[in-house]
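Retry 2 of 3 after timeout on previous attempt. Resubmitting structure tokens to design endpoint.
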């Protein structure tokens, strides 16, 4: 006859049964969770599923996953918040002290008496928070986030078993969440690259295919973006055989926004040029149109000139753009004065119109700030004096060669220093007989 088990044996058997029951429960939770999130790359869906499963497993009211902010490296931001009860359940505000503790210690935390917990002395908790269980999301010992649940439905608060289960969930979920986030960042980066490519195509389509052929004149222009998409713009309008309108501008912003603003500006200037308006009047109308069709923080600088090919005179106006460089034949180059406010800044802007006579051999160079503000390895700018020296040295060369010499000299000066501004140059030169 088999003797009855002792009390100690019964207790050990019950403990073993309890352990096996917990293990089965944990495996069940992990299997269900894996089947739901294993094939997903949607971070919000993944985190929402993790929270719902966690709340059901530990019988809590509400949960949230917070992820480490990659930009700051030590801050945490809430990405998902899910209530376990009715829609009337209000969302708790995560305590910064709570997340700071997990960030510092990188281990699970149970707080069943928030207001009297010595670890959080001085912290003001929300009245509705009765208990908290927070576990870290770790990847190779690096904290990537935290899973927090609030208010155990049982009055006794969260247990060590709850902590163990949630820690297992967090350990198995951290990499899945991170993979989804990395995938979404990659997709976002790809969309940005596609947008930049589209913007670059728009900008290239706006630029002239070639310089206009004007009897008695040699004309050239070029632009070199500092990045994939730039803000510089130049154009020629040669509908009248006796007149050539030309401009160099710099629109604010980068990317697709700058490209669209550039397209708007080009359409506006071309329409004014085709109406054969005087330069000052053209800029006045362009300013009003740009102001009404763009956001308040968008603007553009622009030099606009009209060359009278019979009278050999350039009438021009300047809207906040860098003064062009004029190099008369046999004389020292100088910079043209006069100007006005940038386009799109105030509605009632007025622009001064000036004129310039071109003798044979005279050269006018219109450029963007990327030329004179290019910096070298010690952060010194190229500046106007160096530009004047390049033009003085090469003024007898063809217009295209002058443009190329300016660009090459600036590039050599900058060396390997990264440039933040685009470089644009337009040269108008009256040929010698």
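Retry 2 succeeded. Sequence:
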């Amino acid at each position: 006859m088999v003797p009855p088990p002792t009390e100690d044996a019964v207790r050990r058997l019950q403990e073993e049964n309890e352990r096996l029951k917990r293990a089965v429960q944990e495996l069940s939770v992990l299997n269900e969770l894996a089947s739901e999130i294993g094939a997903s790359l949607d971070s919000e869906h993944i985190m929402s599923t993790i929270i719902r499963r966690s709340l059901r497993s530990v019988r809590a009211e509400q949960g949230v996953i917070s992820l480490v902010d990659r930009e700051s490296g030590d801050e945490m931001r809430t990405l998902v918040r899910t209530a376990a009860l009715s829609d009337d359940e209000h969302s708790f505000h995560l305590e910064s002290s709570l997340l700071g503790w997990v960030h510092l210690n990188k281990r699970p935390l149970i707080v069943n008496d928030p207001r009297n917990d010595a670890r959080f002395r001085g912290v003001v908790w929300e009245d509705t928070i009765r208990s908290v269980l927070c576990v870290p999301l770790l990847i190779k010992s690096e904290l990537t986030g935290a899973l927090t649940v609030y208010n155990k439905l049982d009055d006794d608060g969260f247990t060590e078993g709850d902590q163990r289960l949630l820690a297992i969930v967090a350990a198995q979920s951290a990499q899945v969440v991170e993979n989804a986030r990395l995938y979404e960042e990659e997709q976002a980066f790809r969309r940005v690259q596609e947008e930049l490519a589209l913007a670059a195509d728009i900008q290239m389509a706006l630029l002239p295919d070639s310089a206009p052929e004007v009897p008695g004149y040699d004309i050239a222009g070029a632009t070199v973006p500092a990045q994939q998409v730039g803000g510089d713009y130049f154009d020629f309008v040669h509908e009248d055989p006796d007149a050539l309108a030309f401009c160099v501008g710099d629109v604010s912003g980068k990317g697709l926004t700058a490209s669209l603003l550039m397209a708007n500006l080009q359409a506006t200037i071309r329409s004014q040029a085709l109406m054969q308006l005087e330069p000052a009047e053209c800029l006045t109308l362009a300013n009003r149109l740009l102001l009404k069709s763009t956001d308040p923080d968008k603007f553009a600088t622009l030099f606009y000139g009209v060359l009278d090919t019979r009278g050999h005179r350039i009438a021009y106006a300047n809207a906040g753009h860098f003064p062009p460089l004029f190099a008369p034949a046999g004389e020292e180059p100088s910079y043209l004065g006069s100007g006005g406010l940038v386009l799109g800044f105030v509605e009632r802007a007025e622009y001064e119109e000036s004129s310039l006579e071109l003798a044979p051999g005279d050269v006018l160079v219109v450029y963007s700030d990327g030329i004179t503000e290019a910096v070298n390895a010690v952060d010194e700018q190229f500046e106007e004096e160096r530009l004047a020296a390049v033009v003085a040295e090469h003024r007898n060369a063809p217009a295209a060669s002058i443009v190329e010499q300016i660009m090459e000299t600036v590039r050599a000066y900058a060396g390997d220093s990264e440039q933040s501004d685009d470089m644009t140059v337009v040269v108008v030169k009256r040929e010698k007989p």
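Attempt log closed. Confidence is low (pLDDT under 50) at residues 78-89.
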